[in-house]
Specification:
Radius of gyration: 21 Å
Structural class: alpha/beta
Shape: globular
Strand order of the largest sheet: 2-9-8-7-6-3-4-5
Largest sheet: 8 strands, mixed
Distance between the termini: 43 Å
Strand content: 5-15%
C-alpha cells in the first residue's frame, strides 16, 4: 500500500490553541470529565447571544440567500462597511475595495497567498494570534517576529521592529486590540509603525476584530486613518466577537491606500476570492443590520457590564497568586499572565497546561502557542461568568501552590 503524508507546505504551520491540548480535553470529555474551556474566544458557550435584530434580519433574508453572491460579497453589506469606515474618518475606501469572507481568518490567508513568494518576509508581533504566523508560512513566506514589550503595556517595540526589516520584508502585521495580551495601541505607536511602512514600502495588515471591545476609556484608532494615500493598508474586522456570532463566519477586508500601485496584487486577491466563489451568504446579510443598529456590546464593556466585571475579577485574582503577574487588558477578551521563572522554573509551558488540564479539568492555552519567546506565559479567556472565573482561578492557584515542574 502507498503511504500518504502531509504536504511539506505544512511543516512550519502550527495552530496549537486547537492542537494537542484540545485533543486531550476532548478525550477527557469523552471519558465523562467536565472540562472548563478557557482556551478559545468563543462567546456562545458562555451565554453570550447574538442581538435579536441580527437574527431576525438573517431569517428574513434566508429565502434569498440560497445562491452564490458576488465573489466580493453582497452590495448592501459592503456598502455598510464603507459607510462605517467613513464615520471613522477613512474616506478612501470604495465598495469594490471591500471583500466579505468566512470570518477574518479566511481573508488573512487569502491576502497573504496573493502577495507572498517563497522566502518573502512578513513582520508579525510576538506574542501574536497564531493564525498570522501559520498563514505566512502556508503562503511560502517567512514570519519574522517583532517584540511587544510587556514592561511597556505590551506595545510594539519600534526599534526591534525596524531592526528586523530586510530587503525581503513585504509587510507588517498589526493586531490591535491585541490577542492575546489585550493591549490597545496609542496613536504614537501606530504612527511609528505606519512611518516605518511608508519609509520601507511595506503593506500593513491591520487586524481589528476586537475594535469595539474596549475598557477604561481606551480609544481604538483604525490604522487606515494614519496611512493616507501612500501606504497600502489591509483592514480586517467582522462580527464574530463584538456581535457574538462566531459561527456565522462573517468578516471583511477593506483595502485603502495607493491601490493603483498595487493593481497586480489586488488582481491576485480578486482571483482567489473568485476561486472560493463567495462567503457564506446568510452571514453576509447580518452585516448591514449589525453595523447600523444599536451597539449592544457597549452594555457589556461599560462599568457594571458583564465583560468588564469578568475582566476585572480575573485580573485581581491572577495578580493575587504568588509568582503570577498580569497586565490589565484594555481591550479584547483575554489576559496573558506571566509565571515568574524564579518561582515556577517551567521548561515546557505546553506540559504545564497539560498538567493543569489533567489535575484541575481546566483548559488554557500555553504562551508559546502564540509564538511568545519563553515558556513563562499562558492565555486565559475572560468569557465565563464571575462565579465560574472565581472558581477556575481559585483552582489554578491551588494547582500552582503545589506545582513542581
Amino acid at each position: 500500500m502507498a503511504e500518504f503524508t502531509q504536504s511539506t507546505k505544512l511543516h512550519n504551520v502550527l495552530y496549537d490553541i486547537r492542537g494537542p491540548l484540545l485533543q486531550q480535553a476532548q478525550q477527557m470529555e469523552a471519558e465523562g470529565h467536565r472540562i472548563l474551556k478557557l482556551n478559545i474566544g468563543n462567546p456562545a458557550p458562555f451565554g453570550f447571544e447574538a442581538p435579536d435584530a441580527i437574527l431576525v434580519d438573517m431569517i428574513k433574508h434566508l429565502p434569498h440567500a440560497q445562491g452564490y453572491t458576488d465573489s466580493r460579497g453582497i452590495f448592501s453589506a459592503r456598502t455598510a462597511v464603507v459607510q462605517y469606515y467613513q464615520t471613522r474618518g477613512i474616506q478612501n475606501i470604495h465598495v469594490d475595495d471591500v471583500y466579505l469572507g468566512n470570518g477574518v481568518s479566511e481573508l488573512i490567508t487569502l491576502s497573504l497567498m496573493a502577495l507572498l513568494n517563497n522566502g518573502d518576509e512578513i513582520l508579525v508581533p510576538t506574542p501574536d494570534y497564531p493564525l498570522w504566523t501559520a498563514s505566512v508560512s502556508l503562503a511560502g513566506g517567512r514570519p519574522v517576529h517583532y517584540l511587544c514589550d510587556e514592561d511597556n503595556e505590551w506595545w510594539p517595540d519600534l526599534e526591534d521592529l525596524e531592526a528586523k526589516i530586510t530587503p525581503n520584508t513585504k509587510g507588517i502585521v498589526i493586531i490591535n486590540p491585541n490577542n492575546p495580551t489585550g493591549a490597545v495601541y496609542p496613536r504614537h505607536i501606530l504612527q511609528g509603525m505606519v512611518d516605518l511602512a511608508r519609509r520601507h514600502g511595506l503593506v500593513i495588515f491591520s487586524d481589528e476584530i476586537y475594535e469595539k471591545i474596549l475598557y477604561d476609556e481606551a480609544e481604538h484608532i483604525n490604522t487606515a486613518t494614519l496611512t493616507g494615500d501612500d501606504v497600502l493598508c489591509m483592514t480586517f474586522s467582522g462580527l464574530s466577537k463584538a456581535y457574538r456570532i462566531c459561527g456565522y463566519r462573517s468578516g471583511w477586508l477593506a483595502i485603502s491606500g495607493p491601490k493603483a500601485d498595487a493593481a497586480d496584487y489586488l488582481e491576485g486577491i480578486n482571483l482567489l476570492a473568485n476561486m472560493r466563489l463567495c462567503a457564506n451568504a446568510p452571514g453576509q446579510h447580518a452585516i448591514q443590520t449589525a453595523l447600523g443598529g444599536h451597539q449592544s456590546i457597549e452594555d457589556l464593556i461599560l462599568p457594571g457590564g458583564r465583560l468588564r466585571e469578568q475582566r476585572d475579577i480575573a485580573y485581581k485574582m491572577l495578580n493575587e497568586i504568588p509568582g503570577v503577574s498580569v497586565n490589565q487588558a484594555k481591550g479584547a477578551l483575554y489576559l496573558f499572565p506571566k509565571l515568574d521563572p524564579e518561582v515556577y522554573p517551567i521548561k515546557s509551558d505546553e506540559k504545564f497546561a497539560l498538567d493543569l488540564l489533567r489535575q484541575q479539568k481546566i483548559l488554557i492555552s500555553h504562551g508559546t502557542a502564540f509564538n511568545w519567546v519563553r515558556p513563562d506565559h499562558f492565555r486565559l479567556v475572560t468569557l465565563p461568568n464571575v462565579k465560574d472565573l472565581e472558581d477556575a482561578i481559585g483552582r489554578i492557584a491551588e494547582f500552582l501552590g503545589g506545582y513542581k515542574p
